[in-house]
Amino acid sequence: MRLSRSKHSFYRHPSSSYLRILPFVACSNLALFISGYAVAGEGVVNPGSTLTSGATSASNSVYAGVFNPAVGSLMIAPKESFRMGYLPSFGTDAEVGQVDNFIDDLNDLVDIIDDPTSSNDPVQTLLDRFNAALIKMGDEGYVKNSVSIHAPIMPLYWQPSFLDGVFMLDASVNTQLKASILDAPLEFHSESTSFTTATSLYLKGAIEKSLALGYSQALLDKPLAKEYGGQLFAGAKLSVYNIDLSKQTFLLEKLDGKDVDKVIKDEYDRNLVSTTNVGLDLGLAWVADNYRVGASLLNINQPSFDYGAIGTNCQTRKEGSVERSNCESAATFAKERGDIKTLESHVKAARVVVDGEYQILSGWTVGGSADLAAFDDLVGSQNQWVNLSTQYVPSIHWVPAVRVGYQSNLVGSQLSAVTAGLTFWGILTLDAKMALDKVTVDGNSAPRSAGFSISIAEAF
Length: 460
Hints:
- By secondary structure, the chain is of the alpha+beta class.
- It has one domain.
- The protein is about 20% helix and about 40% strand.
- It contains 8 helices and 23 strands.
- It has a 15-stranded antiparallel β-sheet that branches. A two-stranded antiparallel sheet has the order 5-6. A two-stranded antiparallel sheet has the order 11-12.
- Strand 15 and strand 16 (about 380-385) form a beta hairpin.
- Helix 4 (about 100-115) packs across helix 5 (about 125-140).
């Protein structure tokens, strides 16, 4: 049984009414990392309006059931059978480390390795400058890009006549690429008057394809719901994940060749491992007339996915080749320094997310969500997000809905960001985020992270 919902209540409902990933373009991200910074939580970009509202069972988002499987039942009005997304949703996010003027140092370093006469500074001055910069690069130098796409008409909700609950079907693709620096000392060889360093670029890439089936249902009959002043919903979601993972290292000294693009692609393919596994999510939600609270237990079974090996079987590469040098570099950083691992797995750790939303006035709500523990995303960055937001959905159809929010990562990058979004005609959502933390690039200040999301889904 379901609580009744009026047009102006806290509940809002829709009116009646290839999955193909973008190519992995490693060299584009490599160029971003070396030449400058340009704007492009589990490691995915929240779809649609949830980029602002966060991982909440928000009252006006078709994606609410994706985060908490218990609220799928709230996505369809009692007399309707279906609700869906329309066109694919798209979101992207770019993030950099705290690397003020990092790019200038990196460019100058590559220049003096290629041509020691490119600088008139004394050798010791150059060694002091770049060895200090290399340590900072190794500690804080990274670029991370994320892209998320939901398939057309996803998520799809179906309320069959023979059951009290609602089924949900969802399909999406998420990609991440992270480029960081493995630092090693810069050395000068007086005999050859040359500079050398084992400093390497470290790339980790992931392509995750997922197909999920969920079911949710109210647990209280109508008399009990009326007595308690709310309804308890429960849900479960089973997701099938296919994840391609690859990682690679590249000596900076070898990055000046014309065939770098080919080396990157060859090594990516060589190190690629594809793993298929399943994950189970459970959710609960308590829903009253003017508020709702929820909790989700995600990836209870902690599915694991393998990365491709690096720094192994280097003797199978041609002696003196770029591939052989990169392999031996990876072996050094893994076995002698312990900075990376030759063999590695990504585990979707079991985690709990709590969320809530409160209606202040008709159409005006505040909400938030929080991860109760840290977890690693697809490329190994630590995440634990807290999100707060408020939104206003006017009763006049042609006036855009407005929302603003704040989010913070309590671990890892420890970035904080402001978010904002608009919904036009109840179906088109445009949302953007910008980090409050700044980085200086070429003398200009820029946010360390920025992103956006766009979706078209069935109106409320």
